[in-house]
Amino acid sequence: MAFIVYAHLIPALHSLAAALLTGASILTLVVGLGTQNILGNVAAGVSVLLYRPFLVGDTITVSAPTGHETGQVENISLSYTILITADQRRVNVPNSVIVSQSTILHPSGSPRP
Questions:
Q1: 113 within some domain
Q2: CB 54 within 8 Å of CB 93
Q3: How, if at all, do strands 59-64 and 90-94 pair?
Q4: Which of 74, 77, 99, 110 is most buried per CB count within 10 Å?
Q5: Residue 30 lies in a domain
Q6: Domain, as residue range, for 28
């Protein structure tokens, strides 16, 4: 960035500075759009970990591309929540999906902390 500002001050390098600034702007836009999903999942993961709508070991139902999935929460990370279904399938659900939809928490019989 300092080189671009320096090149912009010298009249002979003015067009080079403009081209570098344009290239940096386009690169920032491409990287921002490329990481939008990842950063959305991380922000939703922070929300899930902060508000704790469910805990590891709870049984929940979420909407997935294959329909409603019911399973026991095995792991909660910043990006994904992993469910184990009754037929022993592992379902990785993005946290952005969990935060943006209705998630059903099934009673387990034990009181929550």
A1: no
A2: no
A3: unpaired
A4: 99
A5: yes
A6: 2-34
Range of 2-6, 58-62, 102-106 with top mean pLDDT: 58-62
Same-domain pairing of 30 and 49: no
Query: Whose CA is closest to 63, among 93, 40, 89, 37?
Result: 93
Separation CA 58–CA 71 (nearest Å)? 8
- Asked if 51 and 84 sit in the same domain, the reply is yes
Mean pLDDT rounded to a whole number for the chain: 87
pLDDT at 2 over 90: no
AA identity, residue 95:
N
3-state secondary structure at position 82: strand
Q: What is the pLDDT of residue 111?
A: 57
Cβ count near 34 (within 10 Å): 9
Q: Let me know the angle formed at the C-alpha of 65 by 63 and 69, rounded to the nearest 5 degrees.
A: 40
